[in-house]
Amino acid sequence: MKAVAYTHCHPATHEDALLDLILADPAAPRGHDLLVEVRAVSVNPVDAKLRAGADPAGEPRILGFDAVGVVRARGDKAQLFQEGDEVYYAGAVNRPGSNAQLHLVDERIVGRKPKSLSIAEAAALPLTTITAYEALFDRLKIARDATGAVLIIGGAGGVGSMAVQLARQLTGLTVVTTASRPETRDWCHRMGAHEVLDHSQDLVVQARALGHAFPWIFSTTQTAKHWRALCEIIAPQGALCAIDDLSTIEIGRLKSKAASFHWEGMFARAIYQTPDMAKQHLLLNEVATLIEQGKLRHTMTRHLGRINAANLATGHQLVESGTMIGKAVAEGWE
Fold first, then answer.
1. Taking every annotated instance into account, which residue ranges of this chain make up the domain Enoyl reductase (ER) (predicted)?
2. Alpha carbon of 66 to those of 47, 129, 226, 236: distances in Å?
3. What is the CA radius of gyration of the chain?
4. Contact yes or no for 5/99 (Cβ under 8 A)
5. Are 122 and 40 within 8 A, CB to CB?
6. Domain that holds residue 30
7. Number of domains comprising the chain
8. Same domain, 242 and 279
9. 258 and 279, same domain (yes or no)
């Protein structure tokens, strides 16, 4: 099968950052696994992070943690899909990725592709959707009938774009997010944000000017940079969730407010085969329905062309630029 992989850590601009390879087809699916013929993929920060810092020591490693494809075979315990079904999913970081023509994935983290979206549009969604959904409803434990306000740091990125939409559509909260450029502020409003703060300026002053208390804060980027401001903004007994890497934080700044800190890691359920692993299947199906009802929208802003090393390397560069709005997608094989 054709695949895009890497064998050594290189900058995204290096000619060998990613390689077009012919690799052996995966084994026949067993257990809960599906064998999926991959039609489209997208690029996430985790792809760039692994390519830059997780050297596979000369062995090809396939990245890719978003996919849309068609089920071609099922394991003996797989019951959620039939051969020929169109699916979308994010996969698992401890297994080969989706940047390959054929891919094995556990059906419990797979959803049905939204019928109203193209293959490319659907490929922009799984990882960011799961991350945003779990952060809001599993980690921060926001109730569907919640009122008040939520603050989402970084509303124009892939995860932020979905978090803003989910909070707006599935709760009664006032949705406040952050962006610093005219084009990203406009994007956040299009996603459904009620208010957009400028995270290049004093967040505490801006947040207080709104007059909202923030029982819930979801930080998708630059959490360490904004940490002191977030601890000032959060309401007493509030909850703060982050997804970016933090080597050190002054966690004690939350103590006086009895506020809690949570990590969101969307691969945790798949890596540890948790008993509630199938929640990701259910949430992807729920989101597919919401999209078909016109309540949520896709976040693809860049079509990279065919799935190959050069185009995916371009996607890595876009992610690493720190200015990406939404998601970049590649579709089809040459």
1. 16-330
2. 10, 11, 29, 37
3. 20
4. yes
5. yes
6. 2-125+268-331
7. 2
8. no
9. no
Q: Are residues 191 and 277 in the same domain?
A: no
pLDDT at 248: 85
Burial of 321 (0-12, 13-18, 19+ CB in 10 A): exposed
Q: Which two three-digit tokens encode residue 224?
A: 């360490």
Question: Could you tell me if 164 and 248 lie in one domain?
Answer: yes
Question: Residues 154, 237, 165, 47: is their CA dihedral positive or negative?
Answer: positive
* pLDDT one-digit tens code per residue, 155-190: 999 999 999 999 999 999 999 999 999 999 999 999
58 Rama sector, left if φ>0, alpha if ψ -120 to 50, beta otherwise: left
- β-strands 19-22, 300-305: how paired? unpaired
Tell me, yes or no, whether 192 and 273 share the same domain.
no
CA distances to 142, 169, 227 from 145, rounded to whole Å, are 8, 11, 28
Looking at this protein, which amino acid is placed at residue 243? I
Closest by CA to 170, choosing from 69, 283, 67, is 283
Q: Residue 46 in 3-state DSSP? A: helix
C-alpha–C-alpha distance, residues 169 and 295, integer Å: 7
CA–CA distances in Å: residue 289 to residues 116, 205, 294: 9, 39, 9
Q: What is the pTM of this model?
A: 0.97
Q: Are residue 90 and residue 147 in the same domain, yes or no?
A: no
When pLDDT is averaged across residues 198-203 and rounded to a whole number, the result is: 96
3-state SS class at 210 = helix
Which whole number is the average pLDDT over 119-142?
98
Side-chain-facing half-sphere of 229: CA atoms under 13 Å: 21
Statement to judge: residues 204 and 311 lie in one domain: no
Q: What is d(CA 208, CA 202) in angstroms, rounded to the nearest whole number?
A: 10
